[in-house]
Design a protein that fits this description.
The structure is a homodimer of 218-residue chains. With 218 residues, chain A is mainly α. Chain A contains eleven helices and no strands. The first copy, chain A, starts with 13 loop residues before the first helix and ends in a 12-residue tail after the last helix. The first copy, chain A, binds a DNA duplex (30 and 30 nucleotides) through helix 2 and helix 3.
DNA sequence: AATGTACCGTACCGTACGGTACGCTTCCCT
DNA sequence: AGGGAAGCGTACCGTACGGTACGGTACATT
């Protein structure tokens, strides 16, 4: 996965951003059968302008995905001053953030269209979504995990493997169920509880101080 | 999720099964832009017959999904004679089975089309896939988990929650990456190793004999 | 004022595809 | 043998939609 379209500075006028916003809204409500005509009408612009700006339909969708990804990018987690409580808080914060993102209507719609496009022809959208979703998460969390290990709070050999374990404990079956249309209501309290549970489980598996925090309790 | 289309006895002639097989193959290679004409040509039948048998395009795809689901159904795991080694073997077997299924081209293609259809209009395909995938797995594994608890080998309060934890430890980021077009080669050895690791982690979290098996090591 | 640019709205074109109609062959039933 | 049902192959229809062309308008530049 060799760093494709890493994070190109996206230069968009206000107007163009408005168009992509319309695409996003349409994608959420209409699913992937959004038409160029519908986009033009919703954004109050002409189809000709759409084609001039974005080339073709795939280009428009790709621009939308990239633009949304560039908006989601959050502040990096600082790895300074890591004690046990701080590490726990960082992990929980990360899990809350991640669960909030994947349960959002926008993320679901975008993942759906990327997956639909990944069937057959070029899977460029899938690569973009993966790069700005799953892999961006990995790049953000791994320094934290390694700082935790350096501080003697965590124990693992393979950072990637440790991250994937945490990923699994956080996401479980949630994303696939949402993508397949299962109605799960993830209110903030549920997300918070899930994040706490996942973090506790992760620390039970990889925490150096397994016995002290009482993490093994049900 | 109120038991929709539970497992209708599917009555299909050999010929009809052959048609659905063609749909499946076409779905795998062509993605979701399979056309009725292509199906008819591949299956050497007329479009008129297709419509007579399956109603319309959605009916054809739904029949394909249901038929494939009915084929995948495996023998239930017996819960007799559970000692530690047997439980471990059961969990590993289950994990291997699950990973093998979700990494198969057929499963990926089917999930993709169901997800694509879940965007907008009725999400019936998504419900069918969910019912025969994720939820069928739960129904299969939960008796094993509860038998393990009854035998004093496992500890948990909520069977559903325990199953979802196991699910997360097994699947991690694999399914979403495959759906988005990431090329991961899951050879049998990798799957085996993943299954062993997930089982070991699950037992470390929920096993009654946490300290004895040395599961906490890297 | 003249000219050019950007863009909106809409009409238009070509094609792909879902769905239907029809002629022909095969095979079963009696 | 005669009649009907099943089904293959193909031609056909209607429509939806991607993409293009064009007239009209607002605004900037000179």
């Amino acid at each position: 996965m060799q760093q494709l379209t890493p994070m190109d500075e996206i230069v968009l006028t206000e107007r163009q951003a408005g168009v992509l916003d319309a695409v996003l809204r349409l994608l959420v409500e209409k699913g992937d059968q959004l038409t160029m005509t519908a986009v033009a009408r919703r954004a109050s612009c002409s189809k000709e302008t759409l084609y001039k700006w974005f080339g073709d339909r795939d280009g428009l969708i790709a621009a939308t995905v990239r633009w949304q990804a560039s908006r989601v990018r959050v502040a990096p987690i600082d790895r300074a001053g890591l004690d046990g409580a701080t590490l726990t808080a960082r992990l929980e914060e990360f899990a809350v953030n991640w669960l909030t993102v994947i349960s959002s209507q926008t993320s679901i719609a975008l993942n759906r269209v990327a997956i639909g496009q990944a069937a057959g022809r070029q899977a460029s959208l899938g690569a973009i979504v993966l790069e700005n979703g799953r892999f961006a998460m990995g790049r953000r969390l791994k320094p934290v995990l390694e700082a935790g290990r350096d501080a003697g709070l965590l124990g693992f050999d393979d950072t990637e493997a440790a991250f994937r374990t945490f990923f699994g404990l956080v996401a479980r079956d949630i994303q696939i169920r949402l993508l397949l249309g299962d109605r799960m209501d993830l209110d903030p309290e549920t997300i918070r509880a899930d994040a706490v549970r996942a973090t506790r489980q992760f620390l039970a598996l990889h925490g150096a101080t397994t016995t002290s925090t009482g993490a093994a309790g049900s």
